[in-house]
Specification:
The chain has 93 residues and is α+β, with helices and mostly antiparallel strands. The protein contains 4 helices and 3 strands; from the N terminus they run ααααβββ. A 3-stranded antiparallel sheet has the order 1-2-3.
């Protein structure tokens, strides 16, 4: 078994206006860079909210409003672009 780590910006964890589930969604997406398109159902299950689309949309909106995520909704499933706030390092996931 190999030891794998995920780099999480401390600024993300210090965001007071985001729920821990929204932060975990960002971390989950960052842990899967090989896959940029996810279904809502898959992501809901991955962050432990069953298939609750309202909660999921709330978490995505928190990430978008705080500059941590951009979502391309013109494709299905949606394409998620993780942003690193206050930096030029943006990664398409």
């Amino acid at each position: 078994m190999t030891d794998q780590t995920i780099e999480t910006p401390i600024e993300l964890l210090r965001e007071n206006e985001m729920s821990p589930r929204a932060q975990f969604l960002w971390i989950y997406l960052s842990a899967h860079p090989e896959q940029s398109r996810h279904t809502q159902e898959h992501l809901c299950g991955a962050i432990g909210i069953g298939n609750n689309g309202q909660q999921f949309n709330k978490y995505v909106a928190q990430l978008e409003a705080n500059g941590w995520l951009r979502v391309n909704r013109s494709v299905k499933p949606h394409r998620y672009e993780l942003l690193r706030k206050n930096t030029e390092e943006n990664t398409l996931w």
